[in-house]
Structures are given as structure tokens and as C-alpha cells.
């Protein structure tokens, strides 16, 4: 998209955009958010008005902010694109359901649109170096893993190897057993029998402290207790807001570092 001027009043409708725009040194004038947001974004965007949730942004609130650029998602905001475009030029990318490379490409697009291409390239180079360095620590003999988000419900939501985090795990040298081939989404639910059929050597669980989740019922089930990962103590837990929702360049760096510091890449849980 060719913009007449370099945008200064940007509204972001996804956390990946909020992350990337902040990393590029620009504070958005409005953002879509839920009550629970990744901690670092809450700090960086303190005082930035909410324009509704990511799934249901308020067109009235966006209009009132007089943006000169809106950043939307191709899937989540498909039905709003025409209306958003009447308010301000709107860039729509697949950031909500992309893979790892898709997130990097989105940052490159934002760098060009915001007149901050050198800054975007620096961030991309830093992440590439971090990934390459971290991959050297991966245990090549480690078995396959599953990455699953545990929302406050009875769902066990797999992040397949085609998702951002699932793809990142593969690039870091860990084999993700879950694929979305033949499915409608790169995140999908699996029941306990399905998990047992894959029987991962490692489990990566994305949870928020204090929330009730599916492990409240699965945790004492003999099927769960017989899983290789559970029996060997290779169950890693990470913050769901960061690992499952954020997706921007800052989040990718934090997640990569946590994969190392936790012992996940080395297949050696830190006690």
C-alpha cells in the first residue's frame, strides 16, 4: 500500500501489531485489547486508549481517534475492512493465524509503511542471530513435543507446526508432532485420547496462573499420568498471554530466550 504521508496516528487491532509498532519506536493512538494482555504490552502501552476487543473493535472509537493508519487482520477483521478503510488507510495482514515467517514478514511491511525500514531490519537481524545461537543448544536426541494452550475451559488447544509458536519450536530444533494438514486452522483442540495417541516425549503447556483449565479433570486421569512426558517430568509451563497471544517481534525474542532458560531446547527441565 502506498501511503501519502508517513503515518503518525496508528490504531492497532492485534497484539502482534501493538508489539511491532512499539518495537519500531512508535506508540499507537489506540489499540484493541482484552482485560488480560501480555505484561510487557500493558507496560509499554500504558495510557493508550482501548478501542474495544480484538474480535469486536469499536468503529466509533476508532473514528474518534482520527487515525492516519489502521492495522487489521485478514481473517479476524475481514468483515470490517471496507468500513475501516473509509476511516483511514488500512493495512490488513495475516498475523492472527500466520506462521513464524509470516510474523517476520509483517514486521518488514510495517517498517516500510511507517518509514522505519532500517529499524525493522535491525530487529529482524537480531532475532535471526538469537534463533541461530539458541538452536545450537537444542538436544538433537530429544523426542517429539506438543505445544498446547490451556484456556479457562475444558479445551486443550494444540499449536501445530504451522502456527507461530509451533513453527518457532521447529526452527529452534525441537520436533512438533502436531500438524494442521487437512484441518481448517493451525490451532485445534484435541481430547485426552488424541494426546495419548501422539504420546509426546515433551509437553509445552501455555497457562495463566490461577485459571481453571482442562488439567483440573485430566490431571489425575491414568491416561494422562501414563504419558511419556508426564512420567519423565518433561512438562514445561509458560505464560499463555505471552506465548499464545502476543506474536510480535518482541514476544518472539522473549519466547526464544525462555525456551533456552527453561531447559526446553536442551530437554533438561530446570528445577
Fold and architecture overview:
The protein is α/β, with parallel strands linked by helices and 271 residues long. Helix content is 40%, strand content 13%. A five-stranded mixed beta sheet has the order 7-6-5-8-9. Keywords: Signal, Transport.
- The CATH homologous superfamily of the largest domain is called Nitrogenase molybdenum iron protein domain
Low-confidence stretches: none
CATH architectural label of the largest domain = 3-Layer(aba) Sandwich
N-C termini distance: 50 Å
Strand content: 5-15%
| Helix count, DSSP H or I runs of 4 or more residues | 13
Largest sheet features: 5 strands, mixed
The strand line-up of the biggest sheet is 7-6-5-8-9
Question: Order of helices and strands, N to C?
Answer: EHEHHEHEHHEEHEHEHHHEHH
- Compute the number of strand runs: 9
Tally of distinct domains:
2
Query: Would you state the CATH class of the largest domain?
Result: Alpha Beta
The averaged pLDDT comes out at 96
> Which topology of the largest domain does CATH recognise?
Rossmann fold
Shape: globular
InterPro entries: ABC_transptr_periplasmic_BD (IPR002491), Bact_iron-sidero_bind (IPR051313)
Organism: Deinococcus gobiensis (strain DSM 21396 / JCM 16679 / CGMCC 1.7299 / I-0)
Subcellular location: Cell envelope
Family: Belongs to the bacterial solute-binding protein 8 family.
In short:
The chain is an alpha/beta fold. The protein has 13 helices and 9 strands.
Amino acid at each position: 500500500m502506498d501511503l501519502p504521508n508517513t503515518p503518525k496516528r496508528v490504531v492497532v487491532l492485534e497484539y502482534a501489531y501493538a508489539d511491532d509498532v512499539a518495537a519500531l519506536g512508535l506508540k499507537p493512538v489506540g489499540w484493541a485489547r482484552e482485560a488480560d494482555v501480555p505484561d510487557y504490552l500493558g507496560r509499554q502501552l500504558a495510557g493508550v486508549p482501548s478501542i474495544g476487543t480484538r474480535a469486536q473493535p469499536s468503529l466509533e472509537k476508532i473514528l474518534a481517534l482520527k487515525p492516519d493508519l489502521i492495522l487489521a487482520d485478514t481473517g479476524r477483521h475481514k468483515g470490517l475492512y471496507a468500513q475501516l478503510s473509509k476511516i483511514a488507510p488500512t493495512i490488513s495482514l495475516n498475523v492472527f493465524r500466520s506462521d513464524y515467517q509470516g510474523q517476520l514478514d509483517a514486521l518488514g511491511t510495517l517498517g516500510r509503511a511507517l518509514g522505519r525500514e532500517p529499524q525493522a531490519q535491525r530487529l529482524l537481524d537480531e532475532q535471526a542471530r538469537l534463533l541461530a545461537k539458541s538452536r545450537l543448544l537444542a538436544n538433537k536426541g530429544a523426542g517429539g513435543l506438543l505445544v498446547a494452550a490451556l484456556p479457562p475451559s475444558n479445551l486443550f488447544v494444540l499449536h501445530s507446526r504451522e502456527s507461530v509458536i509451533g513453527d518457532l519450536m521447529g526452527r529452534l530444533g525441537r520436533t512438533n508432532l502436531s500438524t494442521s494438514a487437512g484441518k481448517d486452522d493451525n490451532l485445534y483442540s484435541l481430547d485426552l485420547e488424541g494426546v495419548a495417541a501422539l504420546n509426546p516425549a515433551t509437553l509445552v503447556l501455555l497457562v495463566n496462573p490461577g485459571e481453571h483449565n482442562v488439567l483440573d479433570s485430566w490431571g489425575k486421569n491414568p491416561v494422562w499420568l501414563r504419558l511419556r512426558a508426564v512420567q519423565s517430568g518433561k512438562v514445561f509451563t509458560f505464560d499463555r498471554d505471552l506465548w499464545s497471544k502476543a506474536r510480535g517481534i518482541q514476544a518472539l525474542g522473549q519466547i526464544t530466550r525462555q525456551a533456552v532458560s527453561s531447559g526446553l531446547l536442551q530437554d533438561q527441565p530446570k528445577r
